[in-house]
Give the backbone structure.
Amino acid sequence: MAAMTETMTINMGPQHPSTHGVLRLVLELDGENVVKATPHIGFLHRGVEKLSEYRTYHQVIPLTDRLDYLAPMSNNLGYVLAVEKLLGITDQIPERAKVIRVMLAELTRIKSHLVWLACHALDIGAMTVFIYCFREREHIMEMYEKISGARMTSNYFRVGGLSADLPAGFEKEVREFIDAMPGHIETYEGLLTGNKIWQKRIVGVGVISGEDALDIGITGGSLRGSGIDWDLRRDHPYSGYEDYDFKVPVDDGCDTWARYKVRLDEMRESCKIVRQALDKLKPGPILADVPKVCLPPKQDVVNTIEGLIHHFKIITEGFKPEAGEIYQSVEAPKGELGFYLVSDGSARPYRMKIRPPSFLNLQALPQMVEGRLIADVVAVIGTLDIVLGDIDR
């Protein structure tokens, strides 16, 4: 008589670090093999999209920091570009502001990728890489603090430009960091790439073809790791990215190893972009000459009654774009981050809908883990590089 077996259903998560937040996976297991995986995104529910309907366009900016809280300036950039597009002032943003935006967006990409690599490695048991990555991330967070006063949910970009110019000595500090960073990436690779344990845990794990990745809506490094050559910075440039020389890393391995290699190369390319931005940086204004939209410089606010009144009126009353709708997307560290804005002519968005990359990328998880061992589930969650604030927003 043949032996009879039955599957077992278990909850995996929500717990840190393995499920990266409030993510819960309902796994149907046959022994240690995953038969079925169903993601439940939890109850973070911060209601950013609905909250935005009750705030002026400027007041929404701090809400965007908290989407992908590991990449706040990328979120800020996507949102302010969307509002500028709605207002029709995209072409009026000063060159210095655009260059600084690119520089900080790429530092943010490096910062986000450092957390990805640190946590991905730690999930699989490699602790030394975690410590090294957080050491470099600390430098970027210190830079964040100098320009915005906040280390994590930094808020520096404004509709029309920036909140202030760069502090003295900031460019020198960035250049020193960028000069050292490629060497640190080599160190990470030295610890991981040739490591047999690392290879066995990620090579051939979490496979998804380019065609399936496109069907699901995956973007970012996870898409490029499946052989799809697509990057909004190059293919739909914004903030002057068309003036920068950089490569888009692509790997057709379609597995966790390919995504690992792609993101390492992305950090190297970001270093090149930041170096070019530093070379392009010239003195000049940091805010568009649109007084009814742009907040006045802080110096004017604290020293003149006109500046104080100007600031007060924009903050309390806001500005009123013409009725219409737009969509603007940026290449955030995790993929395409898009903002769909609808204006009814008032000072507040009638509707804001966010296209978060983590949410769509997570859809691939069942296909990537079903048929694999339960130990592979953690590796696949790590390779997708998700943030639950970006998913259950």
Remarks:
- The chain has one domain: 48-290+321-392.
